[in-house]
Amino acid sequence: MKTAIYPGSFDPVTYGHLDIIKRASRLVDRVIIGIIPNSSKSPLFSVEERLEMIKECIKDIDNVEVTSFEGLTINFAKQNGADVIIRGLRAVTDFEYEMQLAQANKTVAPEIETVFYVTSSQYSFLSSSIVRDVAKYGGDNSRFVPDIVVKKLKEKFSR
Ligand code: ADP
């Protein structure tokens, strides 16, 4: 049985992330989405809110689950017996950082592979930060994120 983890901030989850999640769910037997609470960015949504939104979005995919974790991704991978770490690549700008991460992880745990999914072209521009900006200025996010996320963004910015 092959297990993958898909770590990220998911602040909030977008159709770009969900595309990667669906594709990964066809590659391995089990996908564990790992929400990273305290990245260097100051988050818009709490971990609980991000968890709730992702749960709703993945409810129809049997082999995908979501949790959060503190500390190093590679330790989270080991604790869950993961064979694979999934990451997405949107553009060359993602590449250098992702390569450093993957190589550092490979040094610590050579048995765990990082697998990169190249973004589907319709999502290549899409990031959580664009979605947050669109929401902040009252724009329409419905083509970028699922309904539950649109709703939560509206609640956040109507306060
Ligand atoms: P992080 O803070 O770790 O970058 P994100 O939530 O921004 O977390 O992204 C998690 C992963 O999903 C990263 O590997 C990122 O490159 C990938 N990703 C984000 N948006 C997209 C997208 N539109 N298409 C493909 N991959 C994406």
Number of strands: 5
Strand content: 15-25%
State the secondary-structure class: alpha/beta
Bound molecules: adenosine-5'-diphosphate
- Spatial shape: globular
Helix percent reads: 40-55%
Whole-number mean pLDDT = 95
Task: Determine the number of helices (DSSP H or I, runs of at least 4 residues).
Answer: 6
Radius of gyration: 15 Å
Features:
159 residues; alpha/beta; 5-stranded parallel beta sheet; binds adenosine-5'-diphosphate
Record the SSE blueprint:
Blueprint lengths: L2 E6 L6 H13 L2 E6 L11 H11 L6 E5 L4 H7 L4 E6 L2 H17 L4 E6 L9 H9 L10 H12 L1
Parallel strand pairs: 1-2, 1-4, 2-3, 4-5
The site of adenosine-5'-diphosphate has 17 residues, from helix 1 and strand 4.
Provide structural commentary.
This protein has 159 residues and is α/β, with parallel strands linked by helices. Helices cover 43% and strands 18% of the residues. It is built from six helices and five strands. The chain has helices at residues 15-27, 47-57, 73-79, 92-108, 128-136, 147-158, and strands spanning 3-8, 30-35, 64-68, 84-89, 113-118. It has a five-stranded parallel beta sheet, with helices on both faces. The protein is globular, with a radius of gyration of 15 Å. The mean pLDDT is 95. The structure holds adenosine-5'-diphosphate (ADP). Adenosine-5'-diphosphate (ADP) is lined by residues 8-10, 14, 16-17, 20, 39, 87-88, 90, 94, 119, 123, 126-128.
